[in-house]
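Teaching note: in complex prediction, the entire set of molecules is handled at once rather than each chain in isolation. The prompt given to students was simply: 'Predict the structure of this complex.' The entities are:
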Amino acid sequence: MLIINNIVKQYAAHRALDDVSLRVEKGKIFGLLGPNGAGKTSLIRIITQITAPDSGEVIFNGERLNVKHISQIGYLPEERGLYKKMEIGEQVLYLARLKGLSTPEATKRIRYWFEKLDMADWWNKKVEDLSKGMQQKVQFVATVLHKPELIILDEPFSGFDPVNADVIKNEILELNKEGATFIFSTHRMESVEELCDNIALIHKSKKILDGPMAEIKAQYRNNTYWLEYQGEYNFENAREIFEVLENTTTAHKTRLKIKIREHRNANQVLSALLPYVSINRLDEVIPTMNDIFIEKVTQQS
Amino acid sequence: MNKILLIIQREYLSRVKKKSFIVMTLLTPIIIASFYGLIIYFSIEGVKGTHSKVAVVNNNKTLTEQLASTKNISYTYVNQSLEDMKASFKKTDYDYILYLPPFELSEPKGIQLLGTKQAGLSLNGRISGDVENMIRNQKLKASGIAQSDLDGLKTNVDIDNKKIGESGKEEDSSAGASTIIGTVAGILMFMFIMLYGIQVMRGVIEEKTSRIIEIMISSVKPFQLMMGKIVGIALVGLTQFILWIVLTASISTIAVTTLVGKDELKQRTSSMNIKAKDGSTINTPMTSAVDSPVLSMQKSLASLPLTKIILVFIFFFIGGYLFYSALYAAIGSAVDSETETQQFMMPVMMPLLVGYALSLSVVTNDPYGPVAFWLSMIPFTSPIAMVVRLPYGVPDWQLALSMLILVVGFVGTVWLASRIYQVGILMYGKKTSLKEMIKWFAYKN
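The expected output is the structure of the full assembly:
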């Protein structure tokens, strides 16, 4: 649904985006990752038409990105706020009408969302009377109210307590099920793991990694396993098959983190041990997005 | 509805609904009206005037002429020494003692006015005027002019300002009324441009600091947001201006009629007219001198083309406001808080202040001179200078040219400001220099 081709964006002496290309599939949740100042916000501002690229193009649903797409995109910026003196209901209504909704339709949808997110009695409250988390909820509603096809969320969970973060996460998943595509920019890798189908990693203005999250994780497997067994066995005898990285043995169980050596596999570990001990567990340590993120970024710099 | 209309609507309503706006809008006309009412009240009361009794102690044998009492001051010659008078002063009902010591007529020195309270400037002036007259009369008589000739010399001259209009017809005009209307219009213009220009700047800063700006410009173009804000606030200003005119006019009418009473006002007007035509009322020159400003003011107010002045004022308010508010919007976009605005405010404020100061001094003194002409052409100063000049009469071609230049000027500043604005609003936490703002022009957006 969204194809980004060879985007370059230059700010005076600083190149914010250097030949970045991406592809966001319809109905997926796309994670846009990268350390601070990598160029994520610059890219999002180009997609939301806040700024234009110096070169390259953005294709939205087969068309070059243009003004009419504004109403099909919902954007929750990282730097976000509301008019302090305005009432909540009035404010969301104003933002919705700026996206092209009629007053009655917008009012109906605001009531629906306020009901759903447990904010029904907030209509006449002023923004300055709300906590930061409450304001975030209002902003989330304003972002999704006009039923955009593409929803861009920049650090959506910052400021939420765990309960409300969960509420919002479920809403994201529900909207996704109904067909909305998400671009999700964050530093919090655990929420990337939970939500994203595809990711791209931007570092120092360049894209350094992208693809389906499962594939990327598979690429970064490094033959590390958790091994747990009961019984007497000197694992030094199997050092040709694996090396021990960590040993957290207790009185009843031997618990090891092992790395299987090259050209060996898990089966060989099992056949080496089976005659002597009873095995409770042998499972692969899948690298977390956090590990991959840190590895890729430190490797590049 | 069009997005820019929505923005205008929000900017307008959110300000008009504010308590401070309602209070200011209602209170100001009441203050102006009561001020106006007080002036009229006192000028009429002033005719009745304070009356001072002055005891004259004349120790000057050469002075044979005597001071003649006037409406406000009665002179009584006493045959006592100054010391005696001072001693018994509190028991008498005199307000002041005028002491005339011996002096040569060519060099009148040592004249004193004594009293328990200090004489005011105007009383002092009147008495010294009376003494001067007396000495002059005596000198004239010494050179052989008869008393009857002396009386005949006194003439009271009132200059009626008439202006030859475009069609060659005479028009009533009054330098006083023109100055007052021009000055008031100039002050109002300055106030409006400052107040509402700064409101635009505050609005932009508020959007930036509350971080709603990025949400907004993912739905609307920065130019729409800026223009919506500028136009919305302009409408607030116009609303206030029109309400002020309507309210001030109606309240002053009520105030004047209740304070003075309709009959009395009518009576005074008619009796004045008689005096103005009739030369025989010379004996009481003080009366007409106090009365006439108020009445002639009212007369020449009516003779000024007030509708034209108001319409031109509104035009120049809109033009001047657009010109400056665009610059204020650019400043607001470039900073993170109001305290940072100082360095940029100066260059923007200076021309407005200079225009204001020069308009109220040079232009009112010489409304047709080259300084007045150029001030009313340059768009930085023309909104103020032109409304100050207007009551004196401005040739139509100059008015049209000035309007044209102002329109070109504000299109220019709006264009310039919007380029800075669209970059500035997305820059957080960075101190911006003027040099950087100039660089922003090069950005492609």
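Point out the following to students. Chain A has nine helices and 14 strands. Chain A touches chain B at residues 11-12, 45, 48-52, 54, 70, 73, 75-77, 79-86, 94-95, 97-99, 139, 142 (CB under 8 Å).
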